[in-house]
Amino acid sequence: MKTIIFSTAIRLLTPVFLLFSVYILFRGHNHPGGGFIGGLICSIAFVFHVLAHGPGVTSRVFFSVVLYYYSRPKSHSYTRYALRVLRANFRNKRDTDEPHKWSFVFLRIRPLYLVATGLLLAASSGIVSLLGQKPFMTSYWLKFELPVIGSIGTPSLFDLGVYLLVLGVVLQFIFIMSKE
């Protein structure tokens, strides 16, 4: 199903799906929504992208990261070195007028890593209450609120874990089924 109209529509709708899924994720504590529904909406964006472009393109575009670095010369301080490496990574290219030999690391975020990270976040949200000698999954809230998101606490951490878990499971299913 690789038509020009479908691929163009998916290219335009993917950011909308992703932003809406993050909105549903953070809205979910006090209103309908949360990690499960947000993860499903986010995975819908990737399902459509896989249908339009294939699993290889989707994994290369969304789940691959290239990090640049070079060995720190003795004349550079740690701060100067860190700022140059960060600048090169955010620009996604290295400075060509630099005398240093840049190297890069290619990282691929696999769906099972998302599942493991989601399980870790969801479990750690309950362990926080055990460390405070309270019953498991007792919620703790920070004293301040963020402007758009609101108050952040352990239920938000649990929702984020469920979000990543659902996203990872659906992506694993889609990548396996689309390769066959």
Task: Give structural notes.
The chain has 180 residues and is of the alpha+beta class. It is built from six helices and four strands; from the N terminus they run αααβαβαββα. It has helices at 4-27, 35-53, 55-62, 78-91, 111-131, 154-179; strands at residues 64-69, 103-108, 141-146, 150-153. Helix 5 packs antiparallel against helix 6 (154-179). The longest helix has 26 residues, at 154-179. The mean pLDDT is 83.
Short description:
With 180 residues, the protein is an alpha+beta fold. It folds into 2 domains: 131 residues, no CATH class; 43 residues, no CATH class.
pLDDT averaged residue by residue? 83
- Per the principal axes of the C-alpha atoms, what is the gross shape? globular
Instruction: Please describe the biggest sheet, giving its number of strands, its sense, and whether it closes into a barrel.
Output: 2 strands, antiparallel
Q: What low-confidence regions span 5 or more consecutive residues with pLDDT below 50? A: none
Portion of residues in beta strands equals 5-15%
